[in-house]
Amino acid sequence: MASSTRLNELPLFAACHLIRAGEISPRELLTDCISQIEQREDELGAFTTFDKNLVFDQLNAIEKLKPKSLLYGIPVGIKDIMETAGMRTTMGSKIYRDYIPGRDAVAVANLKAAGAIIAGKTESTEFAYYYPGKTRNPYSPQHTPGGSSMGSVAAVSQMMVPAATGTQTAGSVIRPAAYCGVIGYKASHGAFSLSGVCGFAPSLDSMGFFTRDARDLSIIRNSLLGAPAKPAARINANRIGLVRTPHWERAEQSQRDLIEGLCDYLADQSFELKDIAVGPSDGALTEAQISIMAYEGCRSLAAEYASSPELMSEQIKALIELGHKTSFADYRQAIALTKTWQQKLPQIFSEVDVLLTPSAPGEAPKGLDSTGDPIFNRMWTLLQVPCIHLPVSFGPNGLPLGVQLVGPFNQDDALIEISNRIAAAVREFPNGHPSE
Amino acid sequence: MASSTRLNELPLFAACHLIRAGEISPRELLTDCISQIEQREDELGAFTTFDKNLVFDQLNAIEKLKPKSLLYGIPVGIKDIMETAGMRTTMGSKIYRDYIPGRDAVAVANLKAAGAIIAGKTESTEFAYYYPGKTRNPYSPQHTPGGSSMGSVAAVSQMMVPAATGTQTAGSVIRPAAYCGVIGYKASHGAFSLSGVCGFAPSLDSMGFFTRDARDLSIIRNSLLGAPAKPAARINANRIGLVRTPHWERAEQSQRDLIEGLCDYLADQSFELKDIAVGPSDGALTEAQISIMAYEGCRSLAAEYASSPELMSEQIKALIELGHKTSFADYRQAIALTKTWQQKLPQIFSEVDVLLTPSAPGEAPKGLDSTGDPIFNRMWTLLQVPCIHLPVSFGPNGLPLGVQLVGPFNQDDALIEISNRIAAAVREFPNGHPSE
Q: CA A240 to CA A356: how far, in whole Å?
């Protein structure tokens, strides 16, 4: 069968096109995806819930429709903090291990309305905080895949599904995308409804998703918007601002070398590069994110903490305790600092079109007890701006490395557009993969 | 029994105190509340779901606990767009007429954790938009109670429960509070988790609740926060800014007279009054709210609209169509205008401590097909600031009139504090009730 592509390996945009053109059928695509899930799931642990019958029921329903919708017949993974009617949704918590929602989250309903098939629920850390699920890094089973959207990145990385959803409150989309070498997109805060998604910190919680090709992003984005959204006009924006952030020294040498090498490479292509600073140099935005996340998170989980503390991890209980100790005055100050910097961003984005900055400190750390450090994500989530991770290369341990691109608030389409051009430009960048 | 107060008539703060002191029991309070519900419900239509067995089950569980929590034994009504585990939640929509959630919304869970008893689910308009439920105005059955939180205001007004929850996307807390003569509080956007609440427009959706005494507000607020929140220090803030808004001429004469008379009255007490303007004089903030609500709302309801349009009202379908026609450019411009004015508010609130402005155009309009006009609410919801309605008087038709007080973003405790002082000051204000 080497001469016949396994359809699960197709990137989303290609699968969509081929289905609409009648070249492949949803059943063929789904069969190959399920075959891959069955082959790799034991080793990877990407899915919390995978029920072939529920998946084929959807396929049978889909086959009666005409392939006119954007995601017609495309299998997607759904992070297990998003409610799915009739399909177990555990929130990554023992408290909800048997919880079967009666209703779809808005995002899930919109994906279904666009023709998608819910392939299964993907592992999340507990309530999308730190305590890990069972997923392993596809590149090395003793390394974390990152969190919290760990199952979604593993499933996309290993071609079980062409796309999967995530959410980010600190670094839960961009960091695992970096650790598993997939494209991750965290939307502008508020861009998509989170109704039906387990909330953690309302000021921070943002929707995202994962794919294997930058061209896939606008397809899912338009589907999730649930109504026709015109693509942004193509702008020949090419000014990149390198943001080292106050945490640059916390990045591994290989990550810093990659970013600096990549900037030189892009400057040799058609891009203009300059250094730029965002936020106070003492990392106060990162601290503000930590305060807000604790203050709001402990309130979102107060009822579970009161009734079932024995079913909660020490990690999440420590966060709740931190939240209890965070005063309203400190919280308000953190919100005020955030607003100040949100107001400064338009000036920064008048000088550059996109920011380029680390996605993570480096390769996925060894060990499955932790999901790594979101230190390079917190400030961007706080500022509510859209972020995209692009995989670029591999580090000394053979694990993926890449970069984060950040755009202006609510200009997600423009960020996707420039990310596509950067992704195309770096295709020839030496990728350092040990096998190449 | 005329010499024995019916306990359902007690305001919340009094009932809490008496229960904790052992002077009355939760069972006595609940019995009187249920008796009132049974007497008045047929006429008022406040409840979508009221099941005495479910209520007494909660009471039986509560009685095994000690009365140490803030809302121990207090019956509350829950707006029917907030999910309640095991209790039907219809979203005010035929689509969900049989939907029984498996999980409580965070707000519901926090109220229960504070000891509250869920008395029932109160009527909401369809998806908290315009199409009305069955509730009638307690002061006149041919007049609307306002919307969308119509059942909650009627239940609180008629002493079925001491408090009930609401939400506001345009004017769904403040307007019905005004029409039914209860206290309404719409929190700062983001102040409470909306996880488990049917979302409409994430940039606008805000939590609120209703009581009969301004002293009740901080008790529920602290309970809903789900963690100890220190009350704001008492500030002797007394500078009131009268905001007529660009829509002043849309208010009825009786509403305008009340506001001007009240301002004169407060100026004779210990308050300083001045006129102040907020927002462009052409009402652009109101227009921006309409655009954002349509743009986001049509996306939240896209899946229902695709699958079950025959179960949706013409009103909500018109909103969805408007949302489809609202371009992303217009939406982004509306968000940008909003942020500009949010940034100007601190300057305004350096000149005054609280804004005083109409809650509604006047008395509740006649007819049950419409829920009245949120024109005096849209801009404040958009600006994400906390708002409180205080009932003050009665209009020419014998229906309630009052005023809206607006505070700085995230300074809800300070707004509650000054509202308590204003409420106390206006106790002697001539209230115009025909029976007095």
A: 7
Q: Please, what is the end-to-end C-alpha distance for chain A in angstroms? A: 24
Nearest by CB: A299 against B100, B102, B193: B193
Spell out a b/e string for B209-230, using b for 16 or more CB atoms within 10 Å of the CB, else e. bbbbbbbbbbbbbbbbbbbebe
Burial of A355 (C-beta count, 10 Å sphere; 0-12/13-18/19+): buried
DSSP H or E stretch at residue A388: strand A387-394
- Is the complex ipTM higher than 0.85? no
Of B100, B193, B226, the CB nearest to A102: B100
Alpha carbons A182 and A212: distance in angstroms, whole number: 5
> For each successive 10 residues of chain A (436 residues), what is the average pLDDT?
75 92 93 96 97 96 85 97 96 95 93 95 97 96 97 98 98 98 96 92 96 94 77 74 97 97 94 97 97 93 89 96 90 93 95 97 96 97 98 95 96 93 88 51
Considering the entire predicted model, what is its pTM?
A: 0.86
Compare all CA atoms of chain A with the CA of B340 and give the residue at the minimum distance.
A343
Interchain CB distance below 8 Å, A228 and B324: yes
Domains of chain B, earliest start first: 7-225 (3.90.1300.10), 239-428 (3.90.1300.10)
> Distance between CA B195 and CA B103 in Å, rounded?
11
Bond before A193 cis per omega within 30 degrees? no
Contact A227/B199, CB-based, under 8 Å? Answer: no
Which residues have C-beta within 8 Å of that of residue B347, sequence separation ≥ 6? none
Is residue A209 within 8 A of residue A164, CB to CB? The reply is yes
Determine the residue of chain A that is closest to B197 in CA distance.
A195
Mean pLDDT value of segment B229-240: 72
C-alpha dist (Å) from residue A323 to A34, A35, A225, A373, B196: 42, 44, 33, 19, 21
For chain B, how long is the longest CA-to-CA vector?
A: 65
Provide CB contacts within 8 A for A436, sequence distance 6+. none
Instruction: For residues B388 and B354, give the distance between their C-alpha atoms in angstroms, rounded to a whole number.
Output: 11
Give the chain B residue nearest A100 (alpha carbons).
Answer: B102
Name the residue among B193, B303, B339 with its Cβ closest to that of A112.
Answer: B303
CB B139 within 8 A of CB B56: no
Closest residue, chain B, to A410 (C-alpha): B332
Dihedral angle sign, alpha carbons of residues A22, A26, A27, A30: positive
Name residue, tokens 């489809």.
Answer: B324
* Interface with chain B: mutation pick from A223, A328, A331, A342, highest number of B CBs within 10 Å: A328
What pLDDT is stored for residue B240 in this prediction? 97
Q: In which order are the strands placed within the sheet that holds A117-122? A: A47-49, A117-122, A75-79, A163-168, A206-211, A183-186, A387-394, A400-406, A354-357, A239-242, A272-275
Q: How far apart are CA B104 and CA A303, in angstroms?
A: 10
- How far apart are alpha carbons B352 and B297 in whole angstroms? 34
- Which of A70, A106, A194 best probes binding to B when mutated, by most B CB atoms within 10 angstroms? A106
Q: pLDDT tens digit string along B174-217?
A: 999 999 999 999 999 999 999 999 999 999 999 999 999 999 99
Tell me chain B's radius of gyration from C-alpha atoms: 20
Amino acid occupying residue A237? A
Q: For residue B90, give how far its alpha carbon lies from the nearest alpha carbon of chain A (Å).
A: 11
Contact A71, A16 (CB under 8 A): yes
What distance in Å separates the CA atoms of residue A116 and residue A73, rounded to the nearest whole number? 5
Question: Which of A190, A186, A192, A197 has its CA nearest to residue A226?
Answer: A192
pLDDT at A336: 92
